[in-house]
Amino acid sequence: MIRVVTLDLFDDKQLAKLNRTLYTAFGVGSEHSGSAEMPPGLGEPVDAEKLLEQVKGIRAYQDDKVLLLTSRKLKERELPSGTAPTPGFARQGKDRSVITTQPHKDLEVGFKPVARQALHQLGHLWELHHCLDPRCSMYPPWTPSFSQGEPIFCTFCREKSEQKIRLAKS
Ligand SMILES: [Zn+2]
Ligand SMILES: [Zn+2]
C-alpha cells in the first residue's frame, strides 16, 4: 500500500483527499501513516536525496511505497542547462519518494499539481518511466504544461503500474 508520511503539519481533510486520489490512480490502498521528523542539519531548501537517506521513524512493510510530504522547499537540481526547481524526487524502483507543496501556499491551493507530482514520483517507485502523453502524470515534470494537468495516468501507465503492483504482491 501507499503510506503518506508528513514532515510538516497538513490539514486532515486535504490529506484524506490526496489518499483518495492516490487510491483512484493506483487501485491500491493509500493512508496517512503519521509524521516523521525532518532530519536535523538539512536546513532549507532541503536536499531531497539526503532526506530520503536520513529520515527516520518510517513504519512500512515490504512492498509498501512511502510518499513523504513537506511544505518546505526542496533544493534546486543542477542541470547542464541551469538549475531547475524540485517539486518531487524518487529513485526508480525504490521504496521512498518525497514531494513538496511548494511553490503553492498549501495543499488545498495547490492540490492538483501536488497530487499530479505525487502520482509521478510514486509511479517511478513502481518503475514507470516518463510518458509521451501530455495528459499523463508520467509526462516529464519539467515541461511548462505539467502542472496544469489532472492527477491521472494514461491507460498504458495505469496498466503498467497495475502489473508492477500485482508482481510485488505475489
Ligand atoms: Zn520523473
Ligand atoms: Zn502515461
From TrEMBL:
InterPro entries: MetalloPept_cat_dom_sf, Pept_M54_archaemetzincn
Keywords (A to Z) from UniProt: Hydrolase, Metal-binding, Metalloprotease, Protease, Zinc
Superkingdom of source: Bacteria
Cofactor requirements of the protein: Zn(2+)
Protein name: Peptidase M54
Source organism of the structure: Myxococcus landrumensis
Organism lineage string: Bacteria, Pseudomonadati, Myxococcota, Myxococcia, Myxococcales
